[in-house]
Every structure is written in structure tokens, then in C-alpha cells.
Amino acid sequence: MKLLRLIPTNTNFDFLRVKVIAFLFSFVILSGTFISLMVNNLNYGIDFKGGILLELRSKNSYSPNINELREKISTLDAGEVSIQNFGQETDFLVRIQKQEGDQKEQIAMIEKVKSLIEKNYTVRRSEFVGPVVGDELKTAGFYAVSLALLSIMIYIWFRFEWQFSIAAILALIHDVLTTVGLFSILQLEFNLATIAAILTTAGYSINDTVVIFDRVRENLRRYKSKTHYFIYNKSINETLSRTVITSVTTLLALFIIFFFGGAVLSDFALAMIWGVIIGTFSSIFVAVSLLTYFNINKGEKVDDRTNIPEYEREN
Amino acid sequence: MKSLSKIRLILIIASVIIGTLYATPNFFNTSQKAQSSNFLPGKKINLGLDLQGGSYLLLKADMDIVFAEKLDSLLSDIRTLLRKSKIGYKKLSIQNDIISFQKRGESSNEKIKSIIFSLDKNLIVENKIESFFIKFSEQNKKNITKTTMAQAIEIVRRRIDETGTNEPSIQQQGTDRIIVQLPGLDDPSRIKKLLGKTAKLTFQLAHPTIISEDLDKNSKAPPGFIKLQEDKNPDRFYMINKRVMVSGEMLKDASPTFDRNNSPSVSFQLSALGGKKFGRVTGKNIGRAFAIVLDGKVVSAPVIQTQIFSTGQITGAFTVQETNDLALVLRSGALPAPMVILEERSVGPGLGKDSISAGKIASIFGLIAVMVFMLITYGMFGIFANIALVCNIIFIIALLSLIQATLTLPGIAGIVLTMGMAVDANVLIFERIKEEFNSGRTILDAIEAGFQRAISTIIDANLTTLFAALALFSFGSGPIKGFSVTLMIGIVTSMFTAIVITKYIVFLYSKKKDVNSVFLQD
């Protein structure tokens, strides 16, 4: 049987030569992220902003009309309301800003909307998040992402050397920021699931980075007389096949969630699809490229976990 | 080769069999009850509210109100005690959560302090010349919060139980919050209404001469009296004696009924002690009005016609549903603190079912896609990786069932994602074997070296991912926590399947067959 080969054996691409172009690309998307954050901010969902969310589906006998729905709900004088189609034509997502007054007003508003539309629509989901909880979730989300980054950094420091840990963490921050940027630019709803997607992306990206770094560490000991430039390039090339194959299987799974996992998961899948692509890019072009700016010792710090036999070491 | 020991094989087979046994119940459409008589061990995975439909409520007890109440009762305790100890005082009052008074006469400051401490040694008592300031310490507040929450949870549970909701879960979160989960209930408005009332019921005499018609918004209450609104008509007021004749704690039972005019009302029965007290007061006050006060509002103010003992009726402008609810909250007792709803999430059964089927389709398609890809990329090795993948999924489902974790929609996404990522360990191993082979080793040597070298990479890579998942778990609430649990389990099982199961199969294959090198070459 002829097997599929995505990457030929023994590639010898000069990844580091395009380092500058890659940095430029990163610079552009990071700038885009910051500009968009300043101009558009993030489209915070009710998880963080507080407010009311209802998912409606029109009843069988009724042909849904978004304008009519809009008009009806506008009679409630509920302040800022957004209504959009959700997944399929019969489904709508209604978001209502948090109401003036205490929690009772919020609960009352849900009831008002429900009774207003109950003739033509069934309520499939209703959510209300108070502003206190919203703020708490925001803080918790921030801490979670920071905690993850910090613990990853310490682990890599411990297992490799500090230069690796700096390079890895910068690449990781790059991934997290640009994923946030994607949400800001496309104005996708930024909610709890997005935080989950970002953290999973971070996990995936660091996984990728560690695999390449592992090889760099090994090759640094193996090829003592070669330049760092040569060693880094060789390490990327040697792990390239694995990098691509794992990205493809993960992306396969993610695209399937995106297309078949239902409307609730589609944004979540999109964030991760972006995350896997950018994570793969950053492992090669950001993390390893950054290593070139450090003068890393070749194996002075003897660590024979990788256990290279004497005959294989280059003299 | 050591790796092919019998013990290892037995362990692998045993783990797969046990995993399969625990995973199997999830593939049958039996109810949880029917399973108990089943021969299979374990239970199905718990489905989160987003999958089975249901409501999630996050409540907060308004402790400030409770502290204020407790401070009020502390004030009257202090008054009683000072009188009993024959200590003169003036200007006994509460301001900004501090009780203050000035002493009159010759009592020593130390003596007064020790008298106050005899009420509660945790109180904070300060004294400047003639003045005394008393407030609750953090310890006091902690104790008050603790007992209040224990009571509140009990009352919330009773009220929800009375509505006949299936398997509600009621837990304390943090210091002053309660999480209520109501599976299968997609419209929690009745529950919210029931929990929205503290249901503090009191019977208090009305003012003998000042009647409602004389009162408006601006009327002031004479000492010993308090002006209260009518429950259904906020413009109507009553002047009510502050002293409570009978309170809700003395209630033995309450049930919805109809009064003489056939309008909905609630009949109640008092305890023996309450009946005695009520009889004494009503006997003395025939012809006077008394107010039935619920949560600080007057429900009705009937005139006492005859002496009333242990049974009576509460009438008002009620609907039948309202009398049902009122009877229910009276029976279950008053909440020690008002409950505020901080967060509410309800999912209807339709959406839950759709999410489950979308999750199923995504999982099956995801599995097929990844398996086909592995097969066409690695051939024979692809089959090994796929066997490991199937074992991996069995382990994930078995572990989720075993620890009775809650599977949420993001959790399903986590499983599908794990399928994609789980093959990574196998990919690392196979790529390494290929490399070793291409650098001139024999096949068997290449396999040996490939595994050995890949494992350190696999552990490093997976441990770092595990950190991200742990951060997610520590932060997560509800669905996100579910996602992080599946992710963590996925990481652990995929390491196990790659390092143990794939390895065994590959070694077995390379030993038994006369391995030709074709499968390692281009």
C-alpha cells in the first residue's frame, strides 16, 4: 500500500532564514490585535458583562421573522438588545443588557420577554449573569491564563534552561494575544468557552514547542561542533513530519466540531482552529527563532536523560 | 525483550476489560434505576445540565440584612441586661453598625464591659469616658454567617423538595452563596418565586385608634409602632404594634384552602405553645384588628371576633397558585436571610437533546477521520495507533463514569479534541522509529531506540499541557470544569495507551512477524 506522505523524509528547509519575515508577520498580527482591542475592544458575552441571554426557536406553525422579533422586544424598553440568527433559520439568540436596578429587575425582564414571545417561540435556553458574578469570572479568567503561563514557564525552566523557558513563554503569549485579537477583529462573543479555548490552545502550542525544544536540546549535545543555526534548523526539520501530522489530526477533529458540533461549539472550535495554526507557526518561527538570540551552552550542563551513546556523539 | 513479559500482557488485557465494562453502560439507553439491577459495574456518566436540560441558580444570602437584625436583637439584649444589673444608661442606639450608649451613675466602666462580654465574648467593646461602643467582630460575623447558611440551605432544600423537583442538588459555595441545580427543570420561575420570599410571618396587633384611612406615605409612627405597607396595594398603610404576638416559628402546618366566601386562602395550625400564646392575646383584644405580616408587608388585617387558639386562616387577595406557594413557604419555614439570584442558566430539554446528538455525530466523525488519516499515513503502524486510540476512548469514558464526572458539551468537544491530540504520542514514537531506522539501525534496534527516546519527549510535552488543563480546572465553573476534566483524563490515558499498549503491540508484531522494512520506508 502506498502511504500518504505529507512531508518528505530528510527535509532540509532553512526555516531560520525567513526568521525576519516571520517576525514581521507576527508583528503585523500583534499590531492588528492591539489596534482592534483599542478600537473595537472585545465583544464580551454575558458571562463577563452581565446581562440576559435567551435562545429561541420558532414553533412549527410559525415562520420566524427577525425584524418582527426585534420590534416586539423593543417594546419592552430593555435598553441595548441584540438579536441574531443562531445556527439555523428557526433559531435566534437574544441578548439584553443588564437592567437598571437590582437582581429582581433582571429576573423580571426574563419573564417579560418569555411571556411576550411564548406564542410563537419556545425558549431553549435562558441565562442571566449578575454584574458581580461577571466581574468575578473576568478576574478568575485572567488568573487562570496567567497561572497556566507561569506554571508552564517554571516547568520548562526546570526541565530545560532559562533561555528555553523565555522563548517558549514569549511564543505562548504571542498565541494567546493573537487568539484574543481574532475575537476582537471578528467581534466574536468572548465568553467562558473562549477562555477554555485559549487555555487549550496554549496547552497545544506548548506541546508543540516542547517537542521541538526537546530535539534542540538533544542535538546541541550531539553536534557540538556545529553552529547553533545549523542545530536549530536541523531540529525543526527532524520534527517537522510529526508537527504537521499532529496538526492535521487535531485540525481534522476541530473542523468536525466546527461543522457538526452545533452552534454552541462553533466559535469555540474556531478559536481552537486558529490556535492550532498559530501555535504551530509560533513553535517553529517564534520559539526557535528567539533561541537564536541567546547563546546557549552546548551540553556543559550535563544532563544525560536523553542518553546519547558515545559512538553517536560528534567529536 | 523485557517489554513482552506475561505480566505486562495480563495488565493490559485486564485494564482494557475493566475499562470496557465501566464504559459499556453509556452505550445503552437505560435509565439510572434500571442499571442497578444490571450485571455491569458502575454507572453512566453524569450529564451536565447543558446536555440533559435543567436549571442552575447561584444564590447569595444577603448577610448585611442579617447582621443588622442580629445587631437589633443585641441592642435589646443589652437593654434588658443593663436594666437587670441596675446600670443607668442613656442614648442607647445603633448608628453605622455600631451600638452606642452613655452610662449614667457610678458603675465602673470595667463592670459594664464585663456585663456586655457576658452576652458574647467575641464582641468588640470600646469605651471613651462615659460612652460605650459595641460592634460585631469578624469572628461574630463568621459565626452568624455559618449558622445562617446552614439554616438557609436546609430551608431552600425543603422548599425545592416540596415542589417535587427530581434530584435537586443544593450546595454551599464560598461563604455566603448557594448553588442550586435542578435537572430536568427548564423553567425555574416558580422556584425563583419560592426562594424569593423569606416568608417571615408574624401576627401583630394594629394600633387601636390610627386606622389605614388616616395614613399616607409621609405619616410618622408613634413610639412602639411601625408603619407597614399592604402587600397587594403599596399605597395603603397600617400602623402596627412592634411587639410580635406569634411568629412563623410557632407554625405547625399550613395548607391551601378556601374561605367562607370561596376565595383562596391558607389555613394554618399553630404549635401548642403558639396556640396558647395566641389564645391569650386574642382573648384580651376582641374587637381590635391585628395584622398578618409577611416579609414586612401586611397581607391582611382582620378584626378579632372571638378568641383564637391554634387554628386559623389567612385571607387576602390571593390566587389559588399564590395560596399554594404561601402554604408551601410557611410549612418549610422562613429563610434566615433574603436570597438574591446572582446567576441563572436554564437549558430546555430540546437544546440538550440536540447538543447530545451533535456531540455524538462530532465524536463519531472525528474518530473516523482521525483513524482514516492515521491508516493512510502509517499503514500497519496506523492500525496500531488506531487500536490505541480506541482503547484510549474506552478509558476516557470508563474513567468519566468511574469518578462520576459531569460530562458537558464542551466536555464532548474535549473528547473529540483528545482524539486528535491523542495520536500525537504515537506519531512521536513512529516518527522517531523511522528516523532511527533511516540512520542505519536494524528494525528491532530502531523500534527499541525510538520508544526510548520518544518517551521523554512525550512526558515533557504532555505534562506542560496538563498544567494548562489544571489552570482551567482551578478557574472553571460548570461546563468549563467539565471540559478540563475530560482534557486531563485524555492526556493521562493517551500517555498510557501510547507508552504501554502501542509499545506492546509494536514489539509483539516485530517479534512474531518477519518484519520487512517496507513499512518504515518511503
Give an account of the 3D structure:
The complex is a heterodimer of chains A (315) and B (522). Chain A is α+β, with helices and mostly antiparallel strands. Chain A contains 9 helices and 6 strands, in the order H-E-H-E-H-E-E-H-E-H-H-E-H-H-H. Helix content of chain A is 62%, strand content 11%. In chain A, the strands form 2 sheets. Chain A has a 4-stranded antiparallel β-sheet. Chain A has a two-stranded parallel sheet with strand order 1-6. In chain A, helix 6 (162-185) packs antiparallel against helix 7 and helix 7 (192-222) runs parallel beside helix 9. Mean pLDDT of chain A is 84; it is low at 301-306. In chain B, helix 4 (63-84) crosses helix 6, helix 10 (349-378) runs parallel beside helix 12 (409-438) and helix 11 (380-402) packs antiparallel against helix 14 (479-512). In chain B, strands 10-11-9-14-15 form a 5-stranded antiparallel β-sheet. In chain B, strands 7-8-2-17 form a 4-stranded antiparallel β-sheet. Chain B has 522 residues and is of the alpha+beta class. Chain B is elongated. Chain B has helices spanning 6-23, 32-36, 49-52, 63-84, 109-117, 138-162, 189-196, 272-284, 320-332, 349-378, 380-402, 409-438, 443-475, 479-512, and strands spanning 46-47, 54-61, 88-95, 98-104, 124-128, 131-135, 169-173, 177-183, 201-206, 225-229, 237-247, 251-258, 264-270, 290-294, 297-300, 311-314, 339-347, 406-407. The chains are: A alpha+beta (315), B alpha+beta (522). The interface between A and B is large, with 84 and 80 residues.
- Uncertain stretches of 5 or more adjacent residues of chain A: 301-306
Distance between the termini of chain B: 28 Å
Number of strands of chain B: 18
Give the CATH superfamily of the largest domain in chain B.
Multidrug efflux transporter AcrB transmembrane domain
Shape of chain A: elongated
CATH architecture of the largest domain in chain B: Up-down Bundle
Distance between the termini of chain A: 41 Å
What coarse outline of chain B follows from CA principal-axis ratios?
elongated
> What about the largest sheet of chain A?
4 strands, antiparallel
Computed CA radius of gyration of chain B, to the nearest angstrom: 35 Å
What structural class do helix, strand and pairing data of chain A support? Answer: alpha+beta
The domain count of chain B comes to 3
